[in-house]
Amino acid sequence: MSAAPALALPELLAPAGNLEKLKVAVHYGADAVYLGGRQHSLRARAANFSEDEVRQGVAFAHAHGVRVYAAVNIFAHNRDLDGVAASLAFLQEAGVDACIVADPGILRLARQHAPGMPLHLSTQMNVSNREHALFWQEQGLARLNLARELGCEEIAAIRKAVRCGLEVFIHGALCIAYSGRCLLSAYFTGRDANRGDCAQPCRYSYALVEEKRPGQYFPIEEDERGAYVFNSKDLCLLGHLPVLVALGVDALKIEGRMKSVAYVAQTVHLYRQALNWIGGQQARGAGLESLTMPARFFAELANIGTRGHTDNFFLGQPDADDMLHGSARLAQSSVPAGIARTAEPLLVEARHTLVPGDRLECLLPERLQPLAARITALHDADGRPLAQARPSQCVRLTLAPAVQLAPCTLLRKTPHR
């Protein structure tokens, strides 16, 4: 009896908060990236893309066989609609592969001003059941980004019900509100989360005050730094990738357009290597149901800045253990040291203080295990010797062993080095 054919690997979809992050995501193996323009995107505080940068980003991605999706996914008030039609027409003209929408009004405008543009539904629309999914399929949506509050059995039921593409978040920050529908930021700061300007008050430290005892603060949970009652751990479905492949999900999405370039590099690199490993196991005849992700992938996960990790709803209802009560985030095991800008000579933009003797890890796109190297000499961009490199300074590195590093390669080191 012949083995069942291997299932195609889902698309790996990476965040691109700016042009640099787009290039880094492509370098580390993203199949697609998502970005936002200067308006109408749910990340108003990200650098985002000017029209010229959208053109550059699309050209760069397409030259490397990578798709580009543009987020136009705010919930719009009347005043927000100015310019939406022109933005949609521009995105189609610039060659964007799909637009991500949430507001039905913006969807309607997209039909009028970007006819033929594939449309993906944002997670903001809370697709949490098969009838909801069927409704949007009937409206012609090419892909649905499912609500983050779904378990694997619910995803499987939706997959059986619809033909359109399905996309699932696999890594990144979680919101305490249902699929990001939160009013805390608007209430506390006037910054509207549903129009892309969240101040993340769920990450604040809170205490209890009784109205007749002003100035007396009672901790909600005993901790020397306060109480982080809303602070969810970060989503991480790394261990469930074989299940997601088996479910027939079309795209796996990483959250983080406002995260650092190092975060983009490390998450895309990790999940690319993990998916490649699954593909290799399938090619050797292994069934997805028998696959367990090796420990080396979780060891690499420890290098990514995080609030801790949770499966969220994937295996069942989250509980108190899925919240990070002690602090806003956890310490990470390494820090970004720099980003390679040119290969010969090796010019690096420092992201941390560097001195000769520092031991670095070079994160190569073709392998999970970083390449270890030591800085033997530092020079400025003009070739003058340096005793130390400062963050944001471009420097020439001499490494031992000598290695060729392509532009966009991330270098990192442990914090004590």
TrEMBL record:
InterPro entries: Peptidase_U32, RNA/ubiquinone_mod_enzymes
Pfam families with a match to the protein in the record: Peptidase_U32 (PF01136)
Keywords: Hydrolase, Protease
Gene Ontology molecular-function annotations: peptidase activity
BP GO terms, sorted: proteolysis
Family that this chain belongs to: Belongs to the peptidase U32 family.
This protein's name: Peptidase U32
Organism listed in the record: Desulfobulbus oralis
